[in-house]
Amino acid sequence: MSLEIKKNDTVAVISGDERGKRGRVLSVLSEKEMLLVERLNMIKRHMKPSKKYSQGGIIERESPIRRANVMLLCPKCDKPTRIGQKILENGTKVRTCKKCREVID
């Protein structure tokens, strides 16, 4: 288990045009160290008609955000936090909030 941000985590953007906004992670592009966050960093694409887009036209969708520009939101204290790790009695690693020391998952 890695200590990184995962799919369905809630994150806060800490720098860039979307600074101060929050959203849910839709997917993690680990090889590029980028995230797709729901309804953040929206771009417009001009698409030709195809099977997927039968109408075509201008389509709005999310663009990836660098992982360094977001922080995980702790579900307990509701603040952006760094991620720590804790090893439980049974030997499994879990993510913890560095501010309130609560287990995240």
Please provide a written account of the structure.
The protein is an all-beta fold. The chain has one domain: SH3 type barrels. Helices cover 0% and strands 44% of the residues. The chain contains no helices and ten strands. It has strands at 10-13, 22-29, 34-37, 42-47, 57-62, 65-66, 70-73, 80-81, 83-87, 93-97. The strands form three sheets. A six-stranded antiparallel β-sheet has the order 6-3-2-1-7-8, with no helix packed on it. A hairpin with a 5-residue loop joins strand 9 and strand 10. The protein is elongated. The mean pLDDT is 93.
Q: What string, H for helix and E for strand, traces the elements in order?
A: EEEEEEEEEE
Detail the poorly predicted runs: none
Count of domain modules: 1
Percent helix, as a range, is under 10%
Largest sheet: 6 strands, antiparallel
Anisotropy-based shape: elongated
Sheet-strand content, in percent, reads 35-45%
Taking all Cα atoms into account, the compactness measure Rg is 17 Å
Annotated CATH architecture: Roll
**Main CATH class:** Mainly Beta
CATH topology, anyone?
A: SH3 type barrels
Distance between the termini: 11 Å
Q: Which secondary-structure class do the elements indicate?
A: mainly beta
Could you tell me the number of beta strands?
10
Q: How much is the average pLDDT? A: 93
